[in-house]
Amino acid sequence: MPAKPSNARVGAALLVAALLGSAGCSLAPKYQRPAAPVAESYPEATGPISPAVELSWQQFFGGDARLRAIIALALENNRDLHAAALNVERVRALYRIQRAATFPDIAATGDGTRRQTPASLSPTGERSIDSTYQVGLSIPAYELDFFGRVASLRDTALQQYLATEQAHRSAHIALISAVARQYLNLLATEERLDLAQQILAAAERSYALNHQSFEAGIASEIDLRTAEAQREAVRASVAEIEQARDLAYNALVLLVGAPLPATLPAAGTLASQEALIEDLPAGLPSELLTRRPDILAAEHNLRAANANIGAARAAFFPSVRLTAFGGSASPELSDLFEGGTKAWTFAPSIALPIFAGGRNRAQLDVAKLAQRIEITNYEKAIQTAFREVADALAVAKTIGTQVDAQAARVTAATRRYELSQARYRAGVDSYLAVLLAQQELFTAQQQLVAARLARLSNLTGLYAALGGGWDDSSETPAQTAARLSAAR
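^ Multidrug transporter, sequence as received from the core. Prediction below:
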């Protein structure tokens, strides 16, 4: 005749069965990615359709060693990027806390009690002292997740962590773009300053010649004062551009998070930058969904809100909790680990919501509204990304023509200035013609620098708008999700 199972074995079997059955069904709605509320192609897209931007920032800015070194310093020292990285670690820790709720807590426990019963309350009429000691392992109040509440909260925490990680990547890309643009702005300001100083030197020479001619009685005082006014105007412009250069440098240092070392490679010019940075094919708007970190973050937030609906729905169903203990108990401490002292308890409890004053319904409504808000945020992120790319493409369509036209204007203005000087020295024209030609040349040169800066800044912005700038050797969002799911 087979042996009758002991109560201890029955309790252990019930415990294992309860734990295995705790992976209940999910009440979260099935996730469906909303349709992208944008056109299937960019309005100004030209050239071949390309997949995602495959160039890393080291390759994209590969021709300028100084810029690469400055970007590397910024990625290492920028305080905003540090804060974003720390926030990722904080949210990852919160996810680990929530994930731990899917497993039972097992604690080693030990306790002892001694109780004295007075003779007046003792059934024997004598004073007695009783002792109880026990030691073992316990599971304190573990929730059996039959309706997926804990799993939904875990999924919510996971998606929030992934969203925060994408926010960090977005900050990473934005920092690279900001540093590159500010670096280009500093180069442009230095070129403007160099041009202004050349014009100032010419104005100084013109004033000196006019002063000599006036002293000799050849030139009029009008020509002298005109040359003097032009010299002072250019001198004021030089001071203004010097101020702009210093402010541009300070802004770059703030982005980098540290002073620029003197050992950096020599800086180039805007003209050399144009030869180093190539045009980018835009690809399709649908590709933004998989490479723009702000869009990926918005989708993770949407997935988190979707999972949170499951947790809110589970609040309408019974909550089952389990408390268990297994170990040894004895009235004598010395006999605690002797045979025959085994003890166990198995105490499931269930709570069925009957009346909560509408709280559960309100929480479900809040969860559903939060999901709708995240859908709106997701669609807005896509539209914003689409506009950024479309705007950059619109600028790229005409900025090359502007640069070429400004370069031709500088050539013509330079020749006009040379001719006006020759005619003035020959006594054909007044100094006013020289002044006008000089002003035109100065303006044309400054606007050529501005056009070149606009082209390079726009190309840098397009690179960032397409999701370029993240190191491809880093873990992708899909790899991160797979790793964390496998670790559950």
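Residues 149-215 form the longest helix (67 residues).
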